[in-house]
Every structure is written in structure tokens, then in C-alpha cells.
Amino acid sequence: xxxxxxxxxxxxxxxxxxxxxxxxxxxxxxxxxxxxxxxxxxxxxxxxxxxxxxxxxxxxxxxxxxxxxxxxxxxxxxxxxxxxxxxxxxxxxxxxxxxxxxxxxxxxxxxxxxxxxxxxxxxxxxxxxxxxxxxxxxxxxxxxxxxxxxxxxxxxxxxxxxxxxxxxxxxxxxxxxxxxxxxxxxxxxxxxxxxxxxxxxxxxxxxxxxxxxxxxxxxxxxxxxxxxxxxxxxxxxxxxxxxxxxxxxxxxxxxxxxxxxxxxxxxxxxxxxxxxxxxxxxxxxxxxxxxxxxxxxxxxxxxxxxxxxxxxxxxxxxx
Amino acid sequence: xxxxxxxxxxxxxxxxxxxxxxxxxxxxxxxxxxxxxxxxxxxxxxxxxxxxxxxxxxxxxxxxxxxxxxxxxxxxxxxxxxxxxxxxxxxxxxxxxxxxxxxxxxxxxxxxxxxxxxxxxxxxxxxxxxxxxxxxxxxxxxxxxxxxxxxxxxxxxxxxxxxxxxxxxxxxxxxxxxxxxxxxxxxxxxxxxxxxxxxxxxxxxxxxxxxxxxxxxxxxxxxxxxxxxxxxxxxxxxxxxxxxxxxxxxxxxxxxxxxxxxxxxxxxxxxxxxxxxxxxxxxxxxxxxxxxxxxxxx
Lengths: 319, 298
Hints:
The structure holds two protein chains of two kinds.
Chain A lengths: L1 H33 L17 H8 L1 H34 L4 H13 L2 H11 L6 H8 L4 H6 L13 H8 L8 H29 L3 H9 L5 H12 L1 H16 L3 H7 L10 H11 L3 H29 L4
Helix pairs in contact in A: 1-15, 2-3, 3-4, 3-9, 3-12, 4-9, 5-13, 9-12, 12-15, 14-15
Chain B lengths: L6 H29 L3 H6 L11 E2 L1 H5 L8 E2 L1 H12 L2 H32 L5 H11 L8 H10 L6 H5 L6 H12 L3 H9 L4 H12 L1 H17 L2 H6 L9 H10 L6 H21 L1 H10 L4
Helix pairs in contact in B: 1-15, 4-15, 5-9, 5-12, 5-14, 10-11, 12-16, 14-15, 15-16
């Protein structure tokens, strides 16, 4: 009987083991190997080029711009979506009624195809027919311009404000002007992902025992901010570690918005890593270079996850 | 008691949250509204939410030699019929359905027995297999798309349904989730089933699976949402053959030649693609939220 159970263990795990080896582990080795070559699909042979691909990545301006774009995106979207996610969760959790409605609404973008919504956003922010620029322009010379340019404050010259300048010179090309494009792409990223973080934080908040708040109150933490600092934030520690990791990994993988709207432009300001892999390795068939990007990318992801695991292990005693 | 919120602060919270909701909903509003409007109303930003629904001339129909009077259509009807006629949207939807369903079916078929073995069977090397699963959990498949693409190209499988499905057949997350769930099933239940003479296959099928429906549903939701919406992988492996396009690829193709008149049908396409998951989510919110947060539990 025991021997038979033993045998079934191998039968049941074998398909999974084989697929893990072929689909997940072999590609990592293939990418690592190809990153030292100048391989292209369709060529029968290739040359070993040593570290050349990696050196290019840190010296050629295209790849430096690629890393800058990816890192910028991550550094804006991760904090943005976490702050908004946590803020929304705290507000909703403290509501007496109707909290579920907001939760549903904020979660909608997580469900929707990002590609479809990217196209809708592009349209919404279209310079001539987009609803945003039309609405902004209709405020020129009216109350909104006066209000937002702060011209109603004493000693403030509103005419040099952002809004008034735009009223004279036209509202931004959100996806055509280098000064705005990255910010707009990040905005869509935050819009899409903060609901996911909110849901995780809400789960974290409901698991905090109420007694802790009562204890904190007895210790003199009466104000909301004190209670947040003393109880909520530390108790949300494990959630935060997870949210930071998963948001970072996902942000590094941004592709849909960039491919559909900007194609890495203008002047490579949104040339993120996933798009670079797609363009260089798959469209231009520079597989060697693409593989080097894959390896660096994977190294980023592994480093992050190991850091997360380490932090979680250290914090286990909290829960 | 704590948290005696005054009604003033309660109002303030609602104001902030409503403001947030408006921004979150804005693109959905634009999408649905413009899928109902005529090109003229879109260009001039008029007509409110649903537009005036004044019958308009279908230019393409006129070009085919029909008199203009016979080519009048309401914008709503025009946009949605164009969405299905200009591109084979129905075909894309069926592709999406076939691909997502096959992916989940195969994932479950492989993950469930593996998870059962890891949770309830004793065999030499089990811990090693589990640590392999844990290690693979670190590798996001999108990051290694390039080498997988090369492997598929080497065996001439690009531009096939197989290419859309194969990389996703192994879900280590699924194995992990199901294993964690099976750990909570009491051993007595399995021992009793063995006493009754059940073999291991029927234990999985008739004992473990029925108890694991909630976990399986969570797994299904995570998988279906990810693959219905996935754009990167189909973009990589489907290069020429339009008949293999998944919904996001089809929509992207639509955008390729966007001019003023095509915005309406394009928004109609987007609406059609986004609606199934949104509707499912609205109908079973709790399950969805639980399913998605499950990925966040250790």
C-alpha cells in the first residue's frame, strides 16, 4: 500500500515537473546562453560575443534610455498606486455606509482589458476631440481659469500659471509632448492598478483586531493619525511588503499602454523594457541583445522577490 | 467606543471618494457613450451620453452603389454592426473563449493532481518538487516570453492556437494555491475513502475536488482574467494570421487605421471586449475580490 502511494506521487507530479522544466526553467538557461551571442532567428549559426550585449546595455544611449524609462515608470507608479490604494482602503474601511459601492467602482479597472482601456484613454486625452482638453479649454476665461491660476489671491499674477499659459498656447499633447508623455502613461498605470492594492489593504485592515485600537487609545493615542502610526501601519506591514513587490514586478512589465499609444516615444521617453524586448528581439530579430535584456529583467525580479521574502520572514512575528 | 465620526467628516470622505470614482469611471463613460454616438457628435463632443440617435448615412453602403436613402442607420446600430462587420470580432471573441477555457482546463488538469500529491502523499523527493514550485513562482512568464517564443519558432508552432496556450499550461501559482487548500482537508477523509477501496484517481476526482470548489473557482478567476485580457503574448506569437487573433489583438488592429469615422465602431469593439469580465465581476463581486486577493496570501 505504501509503495503504491509512493508511486502515485510520481505519476501525479510528473506532468507538472516536466512542464516546469520545459516552459519555465529551460527558457531561463536559453536566455542566459543566447545573451552571450549574436543569434538571430533563421540564421544557422551564431557567434559568441562575450559580454558585448551587456556592455551595450549600459553604454548605448538607447538602452540607457530604456532603463531610465522603466525605472522612472516604476518609481512613479508603485508609490502612486500604493498611496492611493491605501488611502482609498482607509477611507472606505472607516465609512459607516456605502463603502462597498466605492470598492466595486475602484476595482473595475483591474478587471478591464488594459489594452482596451489604453485606447480609450488615448481617445479621452486626444488633443482635438478628446473630452479632457475640450473641457479644460471651455474653462478658459471663465471661473475655472481664474480659480486654478490662483488669480483671485492677492498679489498673484495668474497669467503665468499653467492653466493660463495653456489657454493661450493650447492644452498639452498628452502623448506627443515629451514633457507629459511619461507622466500620462504612469497616470494610466496608477488608474489601472490602485484598486488591486486597495482590495489587498482592505483585507489587511479587516484582520486587525479591534482590541489593539482600544489598547492604543488607553495609551493616549486618541487622534486618528496617532492610531494609524501606532497600530494600523505596523499591522499592515506584511500587506505592504507584498503590495510593494507585486506592484513593482507588474510595473516593470508594463507593455500594453506603451505599445498601443506611444511605441516607446517621443524620443524614447517611454521606451520601457518589455517594449524594448518586443521591438529589438521579436520585431528586429536581435535575439542576442533581447536575451541580455531578459536576463537583466529577470535579475531585477528575482532580487525584488528575495528581498520581499526576507522582509516577510523577519516580520512573521507580527501576525 | 472609537471612531465616532462626525457626520461632517463622513461627508468629506464621501466627497473625496466620489471625486475618485468620477476619475475611475471617466474612460468607461467615454467608451460606452462614444460607442453610441455618430462621428459628428464625437468630433464636436455634443449629444450628451447617448447622442441624439439621428439616422446617419453609411458611407461604405453608398460606395457599394446603394441609394443614400437605403443606407440610413442610427449611430448606435451603425457602430455595433461595423464593429462586427469591419473586423471578424465574433471570431476574435470565440478565439478568446477557446484560448482562455483551454488554458484553465489544462492548468487545472495538471495542477490539481500535483497539488494533491504535494499535500497528501508521501514520496521521496516531495520536498524537492515543492521547492521547485516555490522557485518557479518567482519567474513571471512574460519576462521569459522571448526564449519561449524562440523554442516555439524552432518547432514551427508560432501562429497556432497551441502557441497561445502552451506557455500557460503550467500554473505554479495554481499548484501552490491548491496545495495550500488541500493541506486543510483532514487526512481521515482520505483514509476513509481508501478503506472504501477508492483508488487515488477517484480520491482526487470524488473526494478532493468537490471540497476544493472555492479554491478552484479562485484559481479559475485569476486565470481567466489574466488570459482574456492578456495582450503581450498573443502580440508576440500571432504575427500574420488574423483568424487567430484574440479580442485585444483584434481591437489593436482596428486602431491601426483610425480616422474620424472609425472611432465609434472602435469604442463599440472595446465595449464588447471589456463587458464580459466586468459583468461577471459585478454579478459575483465577492468571489472575484476573494479570488484576486488570494494571490496575496502566504
